Amino acid sequence: MFICRACCRRALSSTLVTHPIPSRLCSASQATNAFRSLDSSRNLATAAATTPNAALPRENEATSVSTTNSRDKAIRWKVKKHLEFLDNNYKIAEHVERTLEREDYDEALLLVREATRKGDVTVSWNHLIGYLMRKQRLHAAVKLYNEMKKRDQMPNAQTYTILFRGFANSDHPTLAVSEAVRIYHTMMTSKRLQPNVIHMNAVLEVCGRAGDMDSLFSIVSTADEKLRSPDNRTYTIILNSLRPKIPTHRLPRRKPEEEEDEAEPDAERDPAVAADMAVINQAKAIWEEVITRWRKAKIIIDERLVCAMGRLLRHGGREENDEILDLVEQTMDIPRQDKVSASLPSQERPQPSEEADRPTQVIRKIKEHGRNGPKPRPVGYAVPGNNTLSLILESLRATRKTTLGPRYWDLFVNEYKVRPDKENYASYLRLLRVGHNSTKTADIIQEIPPAMLTPKTFRIGLSCCVRDNLNKHAFANATRVFRAMKALRVPDPMAMRLYLQATRANFRPVTANLSEVDGKFALGRQIAIALDNMWEPFGTLTRSFSFSSIVTCSPEEAWQRSSNEQMEAMAVAKRMVAAMDFVVTEEAADARVIKQLRTRRNILNRYVVMYNDRIHKMENKIKSLERVDVDEGASESRVI
């Protein structure tokens, strides 16, 4: 069988390798050989197309190996030169620390290994282990610790402290607990180095962060009166470890006709509450041990330990929250303000007579630091601070003893010279809101430093004015709070709504002892004043949407970012329009004021209409863009 000459020429012309043909006509065998060469050349071309670097792996591998070898040689040369000048262990450790600061771990590791041949460089090994722990490389750190011992470098107390503290800060608490407990028990069986109280506390912190209470109490059982005598940090860690297991319960309100000794909440009916009370009782048993050791002058009680116990009591009922005041009196020598006459000055108030609560060491007064210094504190008692102030204010809010809040606040701020922080101010404002004390709220907000003012501050203050609707000065207090909001760069729309709500809610004191016409006119005048105060801040709020920080995004993305704030602003505008309609339709103000309100109402109405049109257009555009994205995604999936 012969093949066409044109077909053979066309087949051979497409090959990568040209095969000579002896004659113009070829036989079938020659054609078959030609097609075989064609297939082989096609296979080679396909392989070359699919793996363009198929012929280069060995070359790349050789290049990478050579690069690695050259880098290793450079590091070894640097290490050799450094060791020529580092003639003592202190200089070696200092150089390793500087090397790790510039993230050159390989050079530091090689230098320490080479220096190990000449002497003891345990401090340098500690720097390496600490570096790995900071990088969350627990396995590598433990491996390096084992290598350190194999190279006859004996770990010291600082080595184990670095390990345990690294385990405590680990992002893998389960793994950290197992390794920390294993190393700790290894230390317990060692005759060379026994764990001390610092090591025990670090392992307790590891177990507490992981919530492994069984391991925690197994470590506690290793305490003794020599190397591992429990201190204030030990008990603080234990109490803080118990606390995350208890969720905070909302305390129900007690009706006036209910008896005082009624349990609240009912532990017998709610298993969760019963379990929580069991934990609190366990914490109370631990606290008895703390007080016993404190009276024997074996430990020092500080604010962290007191607040750890107080936070546990906060999760109980009203009785446990009330015990916080006794706790502060017992450990800080601050008398309960509900048992002290408010008419007496603080210097003349009687002190607690229970001498059993005092430690056995001599109680003497510390000299006062200057005329305006803090109140002298007796030695042995904890020093109150911001954490204690927040704890007391929260317990008073839970027990609804709101009248004691200003007493404790003045005691801490004026006598103990505690500078309130943001959390202290927030806790105090919440307490005043529960007590409907709008006057004190306005005073405190005006005293807060501008750097600590947030939108939440004004929301709490204005909501307090809304609740204080029987106070004839509530509107004036709300106005003081609202005007203080100028410290913010952009007014808060929710606070503006609360201000307008406080204006409408406090109508009873305004209209009391007035006729219907006079009362309506007085309420209208009050609303007009509030609307006039809100006009300029509302303009600042709306302008912030147009002149916000420049961002490289589309109008649709910018709209989605600020849509919630604009919706809140429109809600404020609608409330303002409704208030203006009330004053205008009821003619509850002067003619000049009504004329001004009509003009401003028209402006607000047009703004609301424009906003509604804009939101409909933007939502339709966003939906169309999302539909296009879905269609494009579907088409791409079909192509794939």
From TrEMBL:
Q: Does the keyword NADP apply?
A: no
Basic residues: which segments have biased composition? Answer: 364-374
Q: Where are the PPR repeats?
A: 121-155
Does the record's keyword annotation contain Repeat?
yes
Domain of life from the UniProt record: Eukaryota
By its UniProt entry, which InterPro entries does this protein fall under? Answer: PPR/CCM1_RNA-binding, PPR_rpt, TPR-like_helical_dom_sf
Q: Where do the record's region annotations for Disordered lie?
A: 49-68, 247-271, 339-381
Q: Which UniProt keywords apply?
A: Repeat
**Gene3D superfamilies, sorted:** Tetratricopeptide repeat domain (1.25.40.10)
Q: Which PANTHER family match?
A: ATPASE EXPRESSION PROTEIN 3, TETRATRICOPEPTIDE REPEAT (TPR)-LIKE SUPERFAMILY PROTEIN-RELATED
Q: What is this protein called?
A: Pentatricopeptide repeat protein
- Give the source species: Coniochaeta ligniaria NRRL 30616
Q: What is the lineage of its organism?
A: Eukaryota, Fungi, Dikarya, Ascomycota, Pezizomycotina
